[in-house]
């Protein structure tokens, strides 16, 4: 047997966790935390390192499983997104864990000397992670790594569209954790609703805004704090001072990566007035350079299922019916439909009430809208829900700073797309309609930690500074209160 597959031998025969066991699994993990407490520094570091090793050892099983789900998933995309980026997040946590865990001294007001202030990170307890279908390994293991770095135990709910990922994850993680430390569960929307209603100490959900609202509502019954990583419509702003051909190349890569089925993918582009013809020419040229065989290329990923494929076609038809110009960069054939390969499609100047301008696209379709300069682009973006990401192509430092200051978005990449997500040191998260909270890097550690404020009273014998403020209040006490501006 290939060494990369040895940890998942016999996975097709593994019995999955039933819906009725969910509450029991949570109770078991919670009881273990209450008894044993948080993982130690050495336990966290050892388990993180082992997860990274097992991801590498099982890359072939992961690649094959994900390609089967999608109909076809470009191998290199799986290696980059599901394995390399996930391992990078783990490695970053390992190398910084000691620093993150160390209590931090804070200044102490002179009135409370010689006491001392410090902040101690403390594990929350049991964390829930709800995983979508588009990156089922990365979006399970990266949050788990952050939760583990903070010392927590974890339950992971994977999408019902990726059942084999559930089995792979359970088999890999069983070599790192016992069933009182981490549990992986699958199941349909009913199980997901039950999962969201469990009294977690923190719950992270990645998915659509509509489902995110339901998750937050369910969590509210237990006052469970939530991190919502949602989608939205991520704008691209191209300015006249930036070479349009290079911008097209980079945008096209981001919009076709995983066939656009990425929450951080560019959703629409705002380009200078009069640039449509050049955008059309450059996009056609770069599409052929990236995919010589078009969407049937082995480097071009399929749409996850027929329902999503039909939804994308409906977006294009609706835009066409409302007067937009449609440019599909290759003929749409029966082979495309059979393999759910949706060709890259440009929609020029769509009606603002068309579906493609109201819904998150989540596919290789890019609406193009002309604007008169940066101010109009900023106004256009700010009139809509706050995006998970914004992408700005400019050579002007002044313009770059202006857009960064004027537009509220979860993250930003200048002169490229999606790369903010791939930085293990940077927080990843939304704002407003695109979610709230963040993970990755130190922010992930803090998300799954309680930062406990500790004041340590110290004195000279029985005397402490605060005793000057004990009653009965005399002249000295009143003077001190006055100096404290009370």
TrEMBL record:
<dbReference type="InterPro" id="IPR016162">
    <property type="entry name" value="Ald_DH_N"/>
</dbReference>
<dbReference type="Pfam" id="PF00171">
    <property type="entry name" value="Aldedh"/>
</dbReference>
<feature type="domain" description="Aldehyde dehydrogenase">
    <location>
        <begin position="14"/>
        <end position="454"/>
    </location>
</feature>
<feature type="active site">
    <location>
        <position position="263"/>
    </location>
</feature>
<dbReference type="InterPro" id="IPR012394">
    <property type="entry name" value="Aldehyde_DH_NAD(P)"/>
</dbReference>
<keyword id="KW-0560">Oxidoreductase</keyword>
<dbReference type="GO" id="GO:0005737">
    <property type="term" value="C:cytoplasm"/>
</dbReference>
<dbReference type="InterPro" id="IPR016163">
    <property type="entry name" value="Ald_DH_C"/>
</dbReference>
<keyword id="KW-0520">NAD</keyword>
<dbReference type="GO" id="GO:0006081">
    <property type="term" value="P:aldehyde metabolic process"/>
</dbReference>
<dbReference type="GO" id="GO:0004029">
    <property type="term" value="F:aldehyde dehydrogenase (NAD+) activity"/>
</dbReference>
<feature type="active site">
    <location>
        <position position="229"/>
    </location>
</feature>
<dbReference type="InterPro" id="IPR016161">
    <property type="entry name" value="Ald_DH/histidinol_DH"/>
</dbReference>
<dbReference type="InterPro" id="IPR015590">
    <property type="entry name" value="Aldehyde_DH_dom"/>
</dbReference>
<protein>
    <recommendedName>
        <fullName>Aldehyde dehydrogenase</fullName>
    </recommendedName>
</protein>
<comment type="similarity">
    <text>Belongs to the aldehyde dehydrogenase family.</text>
</comment>
<dbReference type="InterPro" id="IPR029510">
    <property type="entry name" value="Ald_DH_CS_GLU"/>
</dbReference>
